[in-house]
């Protein structure tokens, strides 16, 4: 799966639950909230005042390391 800023939180977490750790480390503790499932990564980062490019880079680095 190609994760982008337009990928929904629900799709990302369904693809790899390990992404939740990255999101929580960046201050998004609402990972389990039903309202967040339909938000895109960009929307969720904007709500929390977080740089979506930085979080996306961390997610893609994590996925690259775990899908070797």
Task: Describe this entry's structure for a reader.
There is one protein chain. The protein has 68 residues and is mostly helical. It has 4 helices and no strands. It has helices spanning 9-15, 19-25, 41-48, 52-66.
State the low-pLDDT regions, or none.
none
Please provide the count of β strands.
Answer: 0
Oligomer: single chain
- Structural class call reads mainly alpha
Average predicted confidence as pLDDT:
91
Task: Write out key terms for the chains shown.
about 70 residues, about 0% strand, mainly alpha
Question: What topology does this entry show?
Answer:
Blueprint: H1 9-15, H2 19-25, H3 41-48, H4 52-66
Helix pairs in contact: 3-4
Précis, in short:
The protein is an all-alpha fold and 68 residues long.
């Amino acid at each position: 799966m190609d994760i982008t800023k337009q990928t929904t939180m629900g799709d990302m977490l369904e693809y790899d639950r390990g992404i939740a750790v990255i999101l929580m480390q960046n201050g998004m503790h609402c990972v389990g909230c039903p309202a967040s499932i339909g938000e895109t990564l960009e929307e969720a980062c904007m709500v929390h005042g977080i740089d979506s490019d930085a979080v996306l880079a961390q997610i893609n680095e994590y996925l690259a390391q775990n899908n070797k």
